[in-house]
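Me: I hope this is not a bother. Any chance you could explain this protein sequence and its structure tokens? It all follows right here:
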Amino acid sequence: MELSGNDSFTPQSPSTELSLQQEFIINKTILTHETNQHIVDCKILFQAMENVMFYASNSSNDIDDVCILDGIENFASKETLDHAVYKISRAILLQCHDTMDMHTRTLVLLEMLGNYRWDAKVVLILTAFAISYGEFRLILDVYAQSSLAASLATLKNLCWRNFEALRPQLRAMEMLIKEMVELAKCVVRFESLPLQLVLCDDHGCTLMAAVKSQIYLATYWIFRSSLTSASQIRDLIAMKQENSNVTANAAWGLSSLALRLSRLCNCLGLQVDASQKQIEEKLYKMLMDLLKDQTQVDNQKALHLFFSLNDDMPLKDSSCSQSKIGISKLKQKIVMLLVSKPDLLPIDQTLLLLQQTHEHPHNKNIEQDYEIVWVPISSSETWTLDELVSFDYLSNSLPWLSVRQPWLLNSAVVRMIREEWKFEENPLMVVLDSHGLVSNYNAMDMVLIWGAKAFPFSEWREKELWEEQKWNFQFMFEGIDQSLTNTVDGGRNICICGSSNLDWIEEFESRIKKLQNSGLQIQVIYIGSRNASENTQTKVGFFNKDISFTPIKIRFFWRRLEKIKDSILRVGQFHNFANYETILKQVSELLDTDDDNNNWAVFGCGNSNDLVKLQGNKILKFFESIHVWGLKLATLGLVGAIRSVDDDEVNNTMMTCDHTNMVPYDQGPVICDKCKRLMKPFVVYQCDGSK
């Protein structure tokens, strides 16, 4: 049966019988298809091809995102993708010079790609055509302004053309190419669906069979249209002189094909929309039910729905850019899904997360029991070049697993993450227990605060940690600097100094050194200001050169304080614990004081919970009154001595206190348990009635 390019054609609805011509095309197309199918990363390759088609048909100088073929995978194939595209380009050129009818030549090209999936077929043929079409249009558009283009035009016999006479034919080709791309989108969308979810019932099988028939027709006509367009480009190059009749006939033939593809695209588009909606609703419901199913024996079924519907090896690690890992690696483990944009987190938060997990001292004890899986999600349906580059760099650099091709995540999975897990701009760390159930909808704060110590990272563990937590220097610096943690545990006097005023910090350092030289044992840590510029933080870090408390560790300190406040406010809404008011007050004071650009210092001893904060003029009084509080160091300690100087001006707890405490008469000075001031002695006589 010969099929001319001008045959009338009306796509059938799913419930309508196919015409004899359509059945003939479908049968012939299926015969070219082999069961051993090669898989191509169609989404990214399609984006690259579409860019070429767009710019070739639109005279725009704006540079949009481009894709690199090296980053596009060609699975289960021995040849590289660029070599496959090159072979197809040569095959198209060869078929343009063949004397066989267009239908037979189309089948020859289909047979050449017989071992590829249907979406890969259409994307590869369009990519091969886009290369020759893009080169052709580039020469036409710039040969008058470019010596290189003019030279190429001469070699291709194009430089003498009256291009205005060719405009109708070129416009018809542009219209056809637009329809080819739109129809290919439908094929790619359908082939990326997890069809196995709806093939388990009769209705689903019937619906899929009807759509498959349209997929075969679409593939055939995309191949035929590509070959027809390439042949016309060949004819334009070979044409000795313009012939208006030939040009008009060629334009009419292309327009007829464009109309045929447009009708087919409308029909197939509706069918794919219906299939996608049915599959996504079913997948969404399955995900929601599964994440609450208490009868699961492990996490494999849940992780399969998330990542492995279309790929048995959906994960990668940083050991190799081409690494492929299956979800079986996550079996019986706690899985932490790090959901973020492709640029992950701010650099300081990324490094803090790395330090609190991979490099945390406790991590060696639990590293075999949990895995972090990065799930990057783009803000739009199409990934940009910047997002691709960012993902490639980070996924090959950071020591946790990543979704290997996050742009292929099913839209139902992305929808569930956005709607149920409330992912918007800020990153989430959703924790799945070893049975695949959600144990924490966002463990980010607790991981940045306590690190590996927070294992198994569940909501109840976060509440448990807050129940146990005290506000002291050990908590402030936990996980940031091990040597400083050792200093705290050693029981030394410690002072943290906060300010963005470098002159004031320099004066503070000068005065504190005089006290150290006179015998005061105290370790000072300068932490600058959380809102200070990078240059200021670097200079502040210079004052910490003796203890290696670097500028990045200063940023860690402030980031943890912010997360401490966020966590305690969130947990405190639903769970009241003993130290809630105290810790919230102390961390808020530090953050609020810093926001007001005040100079301040906090003094304490080791991991004691007894701290005193001075700010502004009170710090000056601290230095000036050394002759008073220095005499009380031995009996009261540093914090008690500072408080004892002048309760009304130096003490940062401005309130009256009527607390009493009965101790033996011969006991020395006593510090109030409530306000931490030195208590005044009163004599109490008690009648001993037993004598």
